[in-house]
Amino acid sequence: MAVVGAGAAGAFFTLELSRLRPDITIDLYDRDSRGPGAGIVMSTDFMDHVQRVFPRAFALPATARGVWNRTLTLCGDERIWSGAYGMVGLRRRTFHSHVRQLAADSPRVRLIRRTVTSIPEGRDAPDVIVLADGAGSRLRTSRREAFGTTVTAGRTRFLWAAAPVVLEPSFVLKDLGPGLLIVHSYPHAADESTFIVEADPTTLAGHGLDDRPLPELEKRLAALFTDELRGAPLHAQTAGWQPFRTIVNERWHDGRSVLIGDAAHTVHFSTGSGTTLAIDDAMCLAGALAEGTAVPEALDTYARTRQPVIGAAQAEARESVEWFETLCRRGRTNGHRTVFALRSRRPMNTFDRLRDRDPEFTAQTVHRLAGRPTDAEPRDVPLTVGGLILESRVAEADGSGGKPAGLVLRTADGAVRCPVGDDATAPGALKAAGARAVGLLVAAASGPDESTARGPATIAAEAAARGFDFLAVPSQTGTGRIARTRRAEELTFAGALPVVLLSAEDLSADEINTLIASGRTDMVAHLPADPPEEPT
């Protein structure tokens, strides 16, 4: 076996295969140049899982790690703490050096310090060549068509840096007016922290941050974040601003070559799961090869097992990317509700889960929604719609073809049916005929980058000027919370009129509370899609 790359993926593959099959010779190639520094992050639960197999996997000096159970978000003048349980930051170079040495000490492993520039061929070529040489894998790039590689650049730009200071694990939402600079930071050592700055290109250009030499950029960013850095300098780990590139490979193996870790896939750094996924890849591939089946079958088993897992992780990462990209462009935040939206961009973080883990933070979020302390859940916080004061933010919809004719709203005086019209509707005439409130049906956006002459703020303001009292927005296609509620969230953020999300799915109370607390909608109504017609 040959393993190209001795980072987390390559080292753990070597460790696991050597443990399962100590009879196999493994050549572990480590490139000559040093990779970027700063830190990596993973959960204590995952570390415990790995240590059951490799007890010394994380036996690093205490000075090469940071541990935290909550995260600080600096949002305007507010300092908002929220739970982030059992997380660990590790000094990247120390960790990689440690696991590389563990792998090199395994039976029949030869550590070779050399950059591999081509895949060995001929009679002396290895039986399997594991490409664990990272996102910029030259060996994968040279066979792009064979692997079916696609690389998609994100909209924002980021700079990965280290600071010689122990910082709180935090998100910093700094309003430069216009646009935000967003910082993802965490301690990864007793004397150093990771500090990632992310922004929209227009914000960087508007403030003269986009084309500066790297030393000058380090000084300028350190000055902008002098309070957050407590006066410490910044040391860039990447060559200036760059987009995050999501790598997808249609095929994970070709002949005797197989991809693992970042060479096979990347997930956005905001999910903090890249190293975890790489190690899981390594363990799975080693297990498949150790079974003793023919190499092609083993590689097929590995790909069939891991590709669905990575597909789901990348789908979740796309949601996280979209959330941060949208926030970067807006430059306006709303305290606890923005932080709740940040936390709930990931599907596992629902209202109930966050309330169980961090009741104080969740209570403050609901207080912000209600405008006063309350024990009510978000769906039961009163809402004014036109001249009505609603007791519940869950409405009942009627209609056909996925289009509501009206909504039944719940007030203290009972249920009130309110019509929902389109652009041709005259709300004044409906009110003259007795309607207590009238809604406007707004078409869903086709995608996050949809361009329209009438943006969400214009749509909402024009509807309010015409006499509509609320906006009804169908949920969109997609499996994630961010994608399904994209247009509803845009209009809710505009703030001119209350927004009702029309969901084809009968959402749970927990999901409804999550959507309302995070500002993705003001209300929810279930509007089932029409069943497909039976063939005649």
Question: How would you sum up this structure, described in words?
Answer:
- The N and C termini lie far apart (60 Å).
- This protein is α/β, with parallel strands linked by helices and 536 residues long.
- It has 2 domains: 321 residues, 3-Layer(bba) Sandwich (FAD/NAD(P)-binding domain); 149 residues, no CATH class.
- Helix 1 packs parallel to helix 3 and helix 11 crosses helix 12.
- 33% of the residues lie in helices and 26% in strands.
- The longest helix is centred in the middle third of the chain and has 36 residues.
- Pfam families: FAD_binding_3.
- This is FAD-binding domain-containing protein.
- Keywords: NAD, Oxidoreductase.
Concise overview:
The chain is α/β, with parallel strands linked by helices and 536 residues long.
Assess the beta-strand content as a share of residues. Answer: 25-35%
CATH topology of the largest domain: FAD/NAD(P)-binding domain
Distance between the termini: 60 Å
Overall 3D shape: elongated
What integer is the average pLDDT? Answer: 93
- Our count of helices gives 17
Characterize the biggest β-sheet. Answer: 8 strands, mixed
Q: What structural class is derived from the secondary structure elements?
A: alpha/beta
Low-confidence stretches: none
Helicity range of the residues? 25-40%
Specify Rg, calculated over alpha carbons: 26 Å
Strand order of the largest sheet: 3-5-4-10-11-12-9-13
Relevant CATH superfamily of the largest domain? FAD/NAD(P)-binding domain
CATH architecture of the largest domain: 3-Layer(bba) Sandwich
Number of domains: 2
Can you tell me the CATH class of the largest domain?
Alpha Beta
- Number of beta-strand segments: 25
InterPro entries: FAD-bd, FAD/NAD-bd_sf, PheA/TfdB_FAD_monoxygenase
Keywords: NAD, Oxidoreductase
Pfam families: FAD_binding_3
Domain FAD-binding: 126-313
